[in-house]
Amino acid sequence: MPTLDSNIEYLKGVGPQRAEVLKKELGIFICRDLLFHFPFRYIDRTKFHKIRDVHNEGEQVQFRGILRRLEMVGEGRGRRLVGSLRDETGMMELVWFQAIHWLEKSLTVGKEYIVFGRINEFNGRFNITHPEMEEVPPPSDGESASNTGNGVSRTFDPVYPSTDKLTQKGLDARGLRKLIRTLLDGISAAELPETLPDYLREQFKLASRWEALNSIHFPANQQELDAATRRLKFEELFFLQLRLLQIRTRRKDTVRGFVFPNIGDYFNTFYTEKLPFELTGAQKRVLKEIRADLAKGSQMNRLVQGDVGSGKTAVALMTMLMALDNGFQATLMAPTEILAQQHFSNITELVGDLGVNVGFLSGAVKGKKRQAILDLLAAGEIHIVIGTHALIEDWVQFKNLGISIIDEQHRFGVEQRAALWKKNPAGAPHVLVMTATPIPRTLAMTLYGDLDVSVIDEMPPGRKPITTTHRNEHHRLRVQGFMREEIAKGRQVYVVYPMIEETETMDLQNLMSGFEALSRDFPPPQYQISIVHGKMKPADKDFEMQRFVKGETQIMVATTVIEVGVNVPNASVMVIENAERFGLSQLHQLRGRVGRGAEQSFCILMTGFKLSAEGRERIQTMVRTNDGFEIAETDLRLRGPGNIEGTQQSGMLRFLLADLARDGQILTAAREVATHILENDPSLAAPEHARLRRHLASEGKEARVWSRIS
Ligand code: ADP
Ligand code: MG
Fold first, then answer.
1. What's the pLDDT at 710?
2. Cβ(296)–Cβ(448) under 8 Å?
3. Closest ligand 1 atom, CA of 283?
4. Which of 24, 246, 499, 649 lies 20 to 30 angstroms, CA to CA, from 205?
5. How many Cβ atoms are within 10 Å of 433's Cβ, its own excluded?
6. What is the pLDDT of residues 29-47, one digit of tens each?
């Protein structure tokens, strides 16, 4: 009998050919991989629908019946495979458009099938398109999957993700089910030792690991399945948090950070003489948290979350001044040229005659100018350098870089964060990451689980909440009239169009015809219009952007290139065309471009007449609330974690079972426990933590991935 670590080939019923496909199609190399190939749904043998009882389109159904007919119909692109399923109450049509020749061969008229799918209505009749089909074995077959092995008859059968190639090798859902049954029958509980301390299992009433791994594949009932799922989700989230928090603890213990004991002239003079406003309570609190980090002697790795307009720039600048007061240099890095320049001019103006040398470096700074900056940086004569990711190139060297601030983190990868650390041979500079994309708490705990988090949860006073309305083509004239009124008051207006790669050509056309229509309705010389989109040369983009920033143009027609960070306080109206095509977080970011001054600001969401249910919910959410965190939570619920802005490339959000949109409670509990454990037993040396230590060590493969992100 093979063990869990044996090559999958040696499991009874596999062999070299199937092993090959399992590896290629599902990444299953050893028996353990197969054990962790979890079902994506279960056939509840107690719950079959009767064909006669189906009345609604969209309903998910499971029938059991005989396949009565199977034939190819239609020609060319309309060619399809049509079948009829009969149960004792009626007949249901089944339709396939893809892989039809293969399906025609593998399905047999006259056999009994379990059919799962969603009801469609077509020409007044119901059918199911691309149903999942599973043959019901004749009773004599004695397939062990219909038994738990101890004679109890089963009501739940697992259905596994499979592919055409696997199906062709006999590894459809049923084939996989058989293999996993064989595997589970052949191993003992000792091969799947418990990973959690008993006290944790008791505290959270968790099933044992052995029980859970058996039940996740072959649950006796819903209750058992729920218990197994909860146990395995907890394990998944708990060990992830334990790893992240260990990284954090170790870093604090081993990476020495520069100590900034002094608050000196730069900071104090700036605070008392230059800062043009009183800091909000939240800004003060976050600055205190940063200050505490900087005095500790370990490297700071902190994330500052703050909605657009919450005043992160002032926090960044004052943090940099703390470094300067202790004789160190500081950087502020932004994701785009425009943003970097905006920071540069803001900060240059804010520091005034404080005696701070502020430099600028981006890909656009070339030749002698660049060399001059590089020399000054190396000599320590530039105190603060602001720029783009050009700052992390190898050839940029500092005299003594003490802190790096990264604005709008979601555009920077983890590697880039790490690259900054190498900039000072004397030690790792402190790192402060700032993001204006409010991230749901569960995501933050995972994506930034190794960072300390501060939240600026208060807006500067005197801001009026932005008024958001939903409009369609019928209101076009009124919307234009409103734009005219606002412009007459001296304000400026953004008009934003969607632009995505897949429909780029059409999107660009839309944008251009929108621009032309606006140029007719808002003619020169009274009105001037800027246009910015991704297909323009950077220099042209900048030029147009600057015209708007300086107030030479009243309307800015643009794509989402203006999404992040651009600050034109005089702009009071944001019109978003085809708003239904934007994600919630993106809409929120765009809306954040207005409402930056003292004036009442407006966001107008233009959509078509017909909206999908989800599109409608997004628009309604925007109209209802200005709270970025609430919006982010809704976005997470509607679109799932993989689609949240800036997380797409993150492998960290790939879970076997856990779902950050739904399992917030389990995650919070797991993180709390993990924090508590590491506080009391940082090296997990206590006897009751031996299981944790062993499990962390055995998951070496994953551990390597984890060390890469730190
Ligand atoms: P963000 O967090 O989006 O980067 P900014 O730092 O650009 O926000 O700040 C937005 C605007 O609010 C700026 O014009 C800034 O001068 C102003 N501001 C920041 N903090 C305060 C404050 N405490 N009181 C009044 N205005 C503030
Ligand atoms: Mg900002």
1. 29
2. no
3. 23
4. 246
5. 22
6. 999 999 999 998 888 877 8
**Distance (Å, rounded) from C-alpha 197 to C-alpha 429?**
38
Task: Give the model's confidence band at 521: pLDDT under 50 very low, under 70 low, under 90 confident, else very high.
Answer: very high
Ligand 1 mean position, distance from CA 453 (Å): 20
User: What pLDDT sits at residue 445?
Assistant: 78
Cα of 586 from ligand 1 centre, angstroms? 20
Q: Among residues 491, 493, 495, which one has the least CA distance to residue 512?
A: 495
DSSP string, 564-580: SS---TTEEEEEETTGG
pLDDT at 598 over 70: yes
Ligand 1 contact, 589 CB (< 6 A): no
Beta bridge partners of 90: 87
> Domains of the chain by range and CATH?
1-40+164-187 (1.10.150), 46-159 (2.40.50.140), 265-456 (3.40.50.300), 467-625 (3.40.50.300)
Whether ligand 1 lies within 6 angstroms of the CB of 219 is answered as: no
Instruction: Give the mean model confidence (pLDDT) for residues 520-540.
Output: 91
Please tell me the distance between residue 311's alpha carbon and the centre of ligand 2 in angstroms: 7
The total number of residues shown for the chain amounts to 710
Count of alpha carbons within 13 angstroms of residue 36, beta-carbon side:
16
Q: Residue 149: which region, alpha, beta or left (left: phi > 0; alpha: psi -120 to 50)?
A: left
In sequence order, what E strands does 450-608 have?
Answer: 452-456, 467-472, 492-496, 529-532, 555-558, 571-576, 602-607
**Residue 124, Ramachandran bin (φ over 0: left; ψ between -120 and 50: alpha; else beta):** left
Q: Which of 553, 607, 550, 546 is nearest to 578 (CA)?
A: 607
The span from the CA of 371 to the CA of 364, in Å, is 13
**Encoding tokens for residue 266?**
């730069």
Section 616-633 average pLDDT: 91
Closest CA relative to residue 578, chosen from 469, 437, 473: 473
